[in-house]
Specification:
Layout (H helix, E strand, L loop, with lengths): L6 E8 L4 H18 L8 E2 L5 E2 L7 E6 L1 H13 L4 E5 L8 H9 L8 E9 H7 L4 E2 L2
Parallel strand pairs: 1-4
Antiparallel strand pairs: 1-6, 2-3, 4-7, 5-6
Pfam family, one: DUF2000
InterPro entries: DUF2000, Pep_tRNA_hydro_II_dom_sf
Protein name: DUF2000 domain-containing protein
Length: about 140
């Protein structure tokens, strides 16, 4: 059974990050979507033995990569469209908890944010416009 979606979930990662950081940024940024977007996850999973597992997103998550300038453009496009999105900056790699993460983000003005990743979910055409010029991560 094939499903089509009117929306798109996308993660954008700075392409020069080590793999462990890319995975960390992906996990943190998509958690914001799961936490804030209603009805984005499906029902819990269950295996053939009756063991239950947490629900996951109902739709695929596409992961894109780009350099710092292209991620900054995507950030600015998302802001221009008043989209809600999660953001991960370099400073967050040096913190170890939510309180310190938020303090580190708050300490940096928008123009000085060193963005390493972001995640958003919006109407497909809108996400495509925000991510124009970025390629799927390889």
């Amino acid at each position: 059974m094939s499903m089509t979606f009117d929306t798109k979930i996308a993660v954008v990662l700075r392409d020069d990050l080590p793999v462990w950081q890319k995975l960390n940024v992906t996990a943190f940024t998509v958690s914001g979507i799961a936490a804030k977007v209603a009805d984005v996850t499906g029902e819990p999973y269950e295996d053939g033995s009756g063991n239950r597992y947490l629900p996951m997103f109902k739709q695929p998550v596409l992961v894109f990569a780009g350099d710092a300038a292209s991620i900054r453009r995507a950030y600015e496009r998302a802001r221009e469209r008043n989209l809600e999105f999660s953001l991960f900056t370099e400073e967050l790699f040096a913190t170890g908890n939510d309180i310190d993460n938020r303090a580190a983000m708050k300490a940096v003005p928008e123009a000085d944010l060193r963005i390493v990743g972001l995640a958003l979910r919006a109407e497909k055409k809108t996400v495509d416009k925000v991510l124009k010029g970025l390629s799927l991560h390889r």
